[in-house]
């Protein structure tokens, strides 16, 4: 599906603080002047690689009969990350970046920033990370994020309405309406229709 993607040849920037995604479960937000390189496929912009300051807040707590299990995700992301979907809502908040904007990124040139974005895309698309979410992404209302983690891989967030999947180094969290599942290296909690159970786990996520 993604063998024929390409990157735009112009770097853009956010003209204001932009909310990339928001539901009652969380928010992904970039600061003003965050740089964006479009990801294109079949003559359409399908997403962006962003570089700047990003805030990720996510409620990955499961309420059980034993009490609340888990803790929220609160991250400030400074490394380049990828987003697919919702490009129509984001594009009005972007404009072409100039040389002054690029100087704020450690003096990198436009070509260097695009090359870095290319590395992010190559790692995500060519190493199979997209397979975990490709069936969800066919829906035009889906959004996919890939955030770099300390293992030189990606934490992924896939959302479509009330459906959400978050897979990170230390947890897997899935929610859909009144159903929620949280798996960590220590335990797994499942809640559905007011009922819940918690079990110990002995393997990593």
Structure notes:
- The protein is mainly beta.
- It has one domain (6-200).
- It has 4 helices and 19 strands.
- Strands 1, 2, 5, 6, 11, 12, 13, 14, 15, 16, 17, 18 and 19 form a 13-stranded antiparallel β-sheet that branches. The chain has a 4-stranded antiparallel β-sheet with strand order 3-4-7-10, with no helix packed on it.
- The two termini are 27 Å apart.
- Residues 131-137 have low confidence and may be disordered.
Question: How is this fold's topology laid out?
Answer:
Layout: E1 6-7, E2 12-14, E3 18-23, E4 26-30, E5 35-41, E6 44-51, E7 54-58, E8 62-64, E9 67-69, E10 73-77, E11 81-84, H1 87-90, E12 94-96, H2 99-103, H3 110-126, H4 134-137, E13 143-148, E14 154-160, E15 163-167, E16 172-176, E17 179-183, E18 187-192, E19 195-200
Antiparallel strand pairs: 1-5, 2-5, 2-12, 3-4, 4-7, 5-6, 6-11, 7-10, 8-9, 11-13, 13-14, 14-15, 15-16, 16-17, 17-18, 18-19
Keywords for this structure?
4-stranded antiparallel β-sheet, 205 residues, 13-stranded antiparallel β-sheet, mainly beta, elongated, single chain, 4 helices
Overall morphology: elongated
Fraction in beta strands: over 45%
Helix content: 10-25%
Largest sheet: 13 strands, antiparallel
Radius of gyration, CA atoms, in whole angstroms: 18 Å
Average predicted local confidence, pLDDT: 88
**Tally of contiguous helical segments:** 4
Ends: how far apart? 27 Å
Total individual domains: 1
The total of beta strands comes to 19
């Amino acid at each position: 599906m993604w063998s024929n993607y390409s990157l735009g040849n112009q770097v853009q920037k956010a003209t204001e603080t932009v909310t990339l995604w928001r539901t009652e479960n969380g928010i992904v937000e970039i600061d003003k002047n965050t740089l964006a390189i479009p990801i294109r496929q079949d003559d359409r912009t399908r997403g962006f690689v962003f570089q700047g300051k990003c805030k990720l807040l996510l409620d990955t707590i499961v309420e059980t009969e034993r009490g609340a299990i888990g803790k929220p995700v609160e991250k400030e992301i400074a490394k380049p990350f990828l987003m697919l979907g919702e490009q129509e809502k984001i594009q009005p908040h972007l404009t072409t970046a100039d040389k002054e904007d690029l100087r704020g990124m450690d003096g990198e040139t436009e070509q260097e920033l695009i090359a870095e974005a290319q590395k992010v895309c190559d790692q995500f698309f060519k190493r199979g990370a997209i397979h975990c979410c490709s069936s969800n992404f066919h829906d035009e209302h889906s959004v996919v994020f890939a955030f770099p983690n300390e293992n030189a891989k990606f934490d992924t967030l896939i959302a479509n309405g009330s459906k959400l999947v978050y897979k990170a180094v230390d947890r897997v969290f899935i929610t859909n309406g009144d159903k929620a599942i949280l798996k960590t290296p220590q335990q797994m909690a499942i809640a559905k229709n007011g009922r819940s159970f918690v079990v110990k786990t002995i393997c990593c996520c």
